[in-house]
Amino acid sequence: MSELKICHLYPEVLNLYGDRGNILCMTKRLQWRGIRAEVARVGIGDRASLADFDLFFIGGGQDFEQEVLLEDLKAGKGEEIRAAVRDGKTFLTICGGYQMMGHYYQTHDGVKCEFLGAADFYTVGGDKRMIGNYAFALGEDSGGSTVVGFENHSGRTYLGDGVKPLGKVIRGFGNNGEDGTEGIHDRNLFGSYSHGPILPKNPEFCDFLLETALCRKYGAFQLEPLQDGFEKAAHDSVLEKVENGTAG
Ligand code: GLN
């Protein structure tokens, strides 16, 4: 039986706006196809061999929670996370968890958190929060679907030269409200500002991530289609509201 080992990193501190729903969504979409999903929660102070996992999820958190994690990252987990990214493991990281994968996050009140530098980008906090339902179009190499979600961040993220965003903003702020980019896709590291959680209303993107992790583990791997008309209808209904400006 095929299997994915999923690591939920820092579930006790990085879990805003139902981000944990991403774990439930991935687990269910694997199980419905007869693929085993094993989920481990790895928090502050926990020592686990991160090399044993196939897929990682990190949710969002406020500035305070991000500062709390710095010691734990320095104590060894940071290096293991970088190694897993280099090794092509699949990562879905959201908002505060996404910011953590970059070089640093400077909060709007001037605290500089030196983060992992697992990919080439950085984040600077501003006075204005970027809040609302939004939508973005994924690049072809991230499956090419359209994603709907909810963003709430003061951090503005800037990608290094040659680093690809996850997608292009259709409506909303995305990385910084300036350059039309949203998130990052570097090797198999995916970062996004989309809470909500992101995956239940975006089943195509969920399957793309699962297939990425399965292909890395088993070589070619194609997921069977599911009957997910309900999820797709939820996606389409939000997209319509976001596009015509009635989603809030
Ligand atoms: N603290 C970060 C910011 O405001 C992340 C917030 C979040 O994860 N929603 O930019």
TrEMBL record:
Residues given in the record as substrate binding sites: R129
Domain CobB/CobQ-like glutamine amidotransferase: 5-202
Biological processes annotated in GO: cell wall organization; cobalamin biosynthetic process; peptidoglycan biosynthetic process; regulation of cell shape
Record keywords: Cell shape, Cell wall biogenesis/degradation, Glutamine amidotransferase, Hydrolase, Ligase, Peptidoglycan synthesis, Transferase
EC number: 6.3.5.13, 3.5.1.2
Pfam family, one: GATase_3
Keyword Hydrolase in record: yes
Residues passing through the membrane, by range: none
Substrates-to-products reaction catalysed: L-glutamine + H2O = L-glutamate + NH4(+); beta-D-GlcNAc-(1->4)-Mur2Ac(oyl-L-Ala-gamma-D-Glu-L-Lys-D-Ala-D-Ala)-di-trans,octa-cis-undecaprenyl diphosphate + L-glutamine + ATP + H2O = beta-D-GlcNAc-(1->4)-Mur2Ac(oyl-L-Ala-D-isoglutaminyl-L-Lys-D-Ala-D-Ala)-di-trans,octa-cis-undecaprenyl diphosphate + L-glutamate + ADP + phosphate + H(+)
Pathway assigned in UniProt: Cell wall biogenesis; peptidoglycan biosynthesis
GO MF term set: carbon-nitrogen ligase activity on lipid II; glutaminase activity; transferase activity
Ligase among keywords: yes
Residue positions of the active site: C95 (nucleophile), H195
Assigned protein family: Belongs to the CobB/CobQ family. GatD subfamily.
Subunit field text: Forms a heterodimer with MurT.
Function: The lipid II isoglutaminyl synthase complex catalyzes the formation of alpha-D-isoglutamine in the cell wall lipid II stem peptide. The GatD subunit catalyzes the hydrolysis of glutamine to glutamate and ammonia. The resulting ammonia molecule is channeled to the active site of MurT.
HAMAP family: Lipid_II_synth_GatD
The protein's name in its UniProt record: Lipid II isoglutaminyl synthase (glutamine-hydrolyzing) subunit GatD
